[in-house]
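Comment thread on ticket #2218

A.B. wrote:
> Attaching the input chain for the structure job we discussed in standup.
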Amino acid sequence: MFNWWLALIYLTSMLSFLLIFLISLTALAGGLLIGNGVYAGFIAAPYLGTPKKKIRRALSLASLKPGEHFYDLGSGDGRSLIIAAREHQARATGFELWYFLYLWSKVSIFLHSCSDKARVYWKNFYQTDISNADVIFCFLTPKAYRRLKDKFNKELKNGTRIVTFSSPLGFWKPQQIITFSDKSKLFFYIKNDK
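C.D. wrote:
> Ran it. Output below, let me know if you need it in another format.
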């Protein structure tokens, strides 16, 4: 004889288990996304999107030309990649360590119809070859810039233009400094091994 009470108790316990499992899985995925962002912020910089007006000024300062290789180290939501690809016809490459922003960038690049000229990689830029760059844009911390000194000296070719936002590199003398009305700054450099 079939016992409805036992079946109901069994079904309820299975649904409770499934619900707890799904909640745990969601919390774990959220924790990984947030935790990954904390890690990215720790080794390079926390995410603070650079205003588009300042990105445009940075790319203008660097004289980014069509077909040149533009790299953004810590590309965040991909706005600089989109501006470089759409407004300068550059081949834009971004490196982003926070998985959420990496995914956001991929979608944004697609929605702005730039997939043929802009790419973003979920990668640590400290461990990536950047020797192909003509122009590099960074909005990082002074600690992150110190870590880039050897990499820039070894990998960048003479004539590579670098624009940093907010903080100077600290190991090269800037060719030019632009100060905005809000006191934020762009620092412009040209690699030269002389």
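A.B. wrote:
> Thanks. Noting for the ticket: Residues 31 and 37 are 10 Å apart (CA to CA).
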